[in-house]
UniProtKB/TrEMBL annotation:
Annotated protein name in UniProt: Arabinogalactan endo-beta-1,4-galactanase
Biased composition (Polar residues): 250-260
SUPFAM superfamilies: (Trans)glycosidases
InterPro entries assigned to the protein according to its UniProt record, in alphabetical order: GH
Stretches the record annotates as Disordered: 239-260
Species: Plantactinospora sonchi
């Protein structure tokens, strides 16, 4: 399995400090130990009707100029760029979206190894793609469009996919999303999908049962993995041979949790993922995130990092580093 991380310090509209490039270099090098390592970054398509303050709130004003780190960093030291292109216009604009994909590929295609077309389009909350008008068409047309655009530029090595949040009971239901994909012929969509990503935060936003009980973090992780592979993806004509990427996985350390409970939850989730990697064809795992967006925030999204917003490592940093380097000893238990 390949491991990776989002290196920035932003979660939605939360971001308490600018990125420290030197600290990111040092910490990512420590995590990877020179092994292949995936770096996740985000771009956003807003269309023409989105107010400038929305763009600014997401720190997205300069995304086509630069990412978190200098360009060359993403292709040095066995690093691979996983570039997410999010569709969040306030008015449907699929033609503008397809043109934006071309622009992104022209700007970053030469740096990119994985191109994710849309971010959780089954998840209808503000500032996530599932809430955007026209998102289903943006996904269904965007995947083959991006494939053709990459091929024209000789970038056939770039893998293309999309991500979802699972399972549906966390979302209030996503049947409309999967029903739409089930209506799209295999050759028009699924045939162009190289991987499917999963956004996985089982204990971040609602209480869970204590460890070792039904409904704990480990059992919820297993349920999400199996539901996606066994129930949702077949509806979209996506076969078991298409790899799963854990595109985002995180757990907060802020009150009422602690840095130690974050460490325990990360261990539980990774234990299940590693145990299921072969049976479910999980090939990549990317942690969200390296740094807290705001270590003093009471919002769960503020403390998902494995270092604080001033780059002090938490206990979870050492746990993840040992997993990446193959020295971690996790209790890996299979779940039905």
């Amino acid at each position: 399995m390949k491991f990776g991380i989002y290196p920035g310090g932003r979660a939605g509209t939360l971001c308490s400090h600018p990125s420290d490039v030197a600290a990111i270099r040092r910490l990512v090098d420590d995590l990877s130990g020179g092994r292949p390592f995936v770096i996740r970054e985000y771009l956003h398509f807003f269309g023409d009707a989105t107010p400038p303050d929305v763009v600014t709130s997401l720190g997205a004003e300069h995304e086509l100029a630069h990412l978190t780190m200098p360009d060359e960093w993403y292709v040095e030291g066995n690093r691979e760029l996983d570039l997410v292109v999010s569709y969040i216009p306030q008015v449907a604009d699929v033609s503008g979206w397809l043109a934006f994909l071309d622009t992104v590929i022209d700007r970053y295609g030469h740096l990119t190894r994985y191109l994710q077309v849309t971010l959780e389009p089954n998840f209808p909350i503000p500032l996530i793609d599932g809430s955007a008008p026209g998102v289903l068409e943006a996904l269904a047309l965007g995947i083959p469009h991006a494939r053709a655009a990459l091929d024209r530029r000789g970038l056939r090595h770039v893998r293309i996919g999309f991500s979802v949040a699972e399972p549906p009971e966390w979302l209030g239901g996503d049947d409309q999303f999967w029903s739409y994909l089930s209506s799209v012929p295999y050759h028009d969509f699924a045939a162009h999908v190289d991987y499917v990503g999963l956004g996985l935060y089982p204990d971040a936003f609602s209480p869970v049962a204590p460890r070792g009980n039904p409904g704990d973090t480990a059992s919820l992780t297993a349920h999400a993995l199996h539901h996606l592979r066994g129930e949702s993806l077949p509806r979209a004509h996506i076969p078991p041979s298409t790899p799963l990427h854990i595109a985002e996985n995180g757990t907060p350390s802020g009150s009422p949790r602690t840095e130690q409970t974050q460490c325990d939850s990360l261990t539980d989730m990774l234990g299940v993922i590693l145990a299921e990697q072969e049976s479910l064809n999980i090939t990549h795992y990317e942690l969200f995130s390296l740094r807290d967006a705001d270590s003093g925030s009471t919002e769960p999204t503020g403390t998902l990092g494995i270092v604080t917003d001033t780059y002090r490592p938490k206990p979870a940093f050492a746990v993840y580093r040992d997993i990446v380097r193959g020295t971690g000893q996790l209790p890996v238990t299979r779940h039905p």
